[in-house]
Amino acid sequence: MLIEQHRTLSGLNVFLVIVVGIALCLGVYLHLPDSLTPVFFEPGLDRLLDLQLGSKFSPSFNVLLTLVLTLIQAFYLNQLVNHFNLLGKPNFLTSLMFITLVSTFLPFLVLSPTLICNFITIWMLQKLFNIYKHTDITGIMFDLGLLVAAGSLIYFPFIVMLILIWASLITFRPFAWREWITPLLGCITVYFLLAVCYFWLDRMSEFYQIFIPFTYAFNTDLQIDILDYLVLIPIILALIGFLLILKDNFFKSVVHVRKSFQLLFVMLVLIFASFYLNETKSINHFLLCVPPLSIYLAYFFTHAKIKWFYETLYIVILLTIVYLQFF
After folding, report:
1. Is the dihedral of CA 133, 180, 163, 189 positive or negative?
2. How many CB atoms are located within 10 Å of the residue 68 CB?
3. Position 216 pLDDT exceeds 70
């Protein structure tokens, strides 16, 4: 079965992940609209460079490109998890969970700013999981600040990842004030250079509008069909299973793994909290949750003992996703 197969490092799993990815995007590919809205980056970047990703792409190419990008992200995250041994043993479950979760809702299957930001998210996790090894991490912290600023210019709510950097310092490092200041300096550097460009163009009033999202009132309005929530039921069951297994194994795991899972939880909280910074209140915002949730689900399916249960649960997740895409 799929889960048992992906518990190994067999090269066959690369092919199987690709097959699952293709199968899970067939619904949107076979019911393509006449056109898709191009990806608009945040106004701070869009006004300056007039960037529109995918404005000349056909809907079919849009979906295929999205599939390719998500597969790259899935294997990148899988390599990261195996490198830091977060699951206890190397396997391909993280990539399988990633490609499954990015197919949960139809809007996830087309190009979006959050899809692009997930590359930065995974890159940041790679750096954050590694900071405990270094004596001096000020350079890494500055780079992380640059990444947060770059991500926020693509999708502004990504700015909350600056708090994630500070959370990682609390989790992995003793207090050192230089390490706390450096990521902020990196973030400010990008916005300072952006402000200089706007100043040269005599458009500073437009620069100040970048930060309008901080004034938005909290809004929980999210346009989603109630039937789409059905796909979350088996996923929530798997997450409950993850919590039960983690409870039993938490203090048996090495310290770095425990701290990494804590950091991933903080990341999820920040992503949910930053939802109000998105003016359009799109379901695409929660695509940012896919990397940490993929690791959590991969941990569950790696350590679950009852074969018929975890294999059946994953098949139910797949069938629910496919059913809601076609019906």
Report:
1. negative
2. 12
3. no
Q: How far, in Å, CA of 310 to CA of 314, rounded?
A: 6
- Dist. CA 221–CA 267, nearest whole Å: 22
- Structure tokens that stand for 318 in this block: 């797949």
100-111 burial: b if 16+ Cβ within 10 Å, else e = bbbbbbbbbbbb
SS3 12: helix
Quote the CA–CA distance of 204 and 209 in Å, as a whole number.
9
Buried (b) or exposed (e) across 133-166, using 16+ Cβ within 10 A? eeeebbebbbbbbbbbbbbbbbbbbbbbbbbbbe
pLDDT in tens, 243-267: 999 988 877 778 888 999 999 999 9
**Cα(150)–Cα(185) distance, integer angstroms:** 13
What pLDDT, in 10s, does the model give residues 218-245? Answer: 655 555 566 667 889 999 999 999 999 9
- The amino acid present at 312, given as its one-letter code, is T
Among 233, 210, 218, 325, CA closest to 281: 218
Torsion angle, CA of 85/288/235/68, rounded to 10 degrees?
-80
Distance CA 9, CA 32 (A): 35
Q: What are phi and psi of 53, to 5 degrees?
A: -80, 125
| Integer CA distances (angstroms), 207 to 47, 113, 117, 129, 203, in order | 9, 20, 21, 34, 7
User: Hey, what are 141's tokens?
Assistant: 């912290």
* CA-to-CA dists, residue 13 to 7, 19, 93, angstroms: 9, 10, 9
Distances 46 to 35, 41, 52, 118, 245 between C-alpha atoms, Å: 21, 6, 8, 19, 45
Q: Is residue 28 over pLDDT 90?
A: no
Cβ-count burial of 14 within 10 angstroms (0-12 exposed, 13-18 middle, 19+ buried)? middle
pTM more than 0.70: yes
The rounded distance, in Å, linking the Cα atoms of 310 and 4 is: 9
Tell me the residue type at 180: W
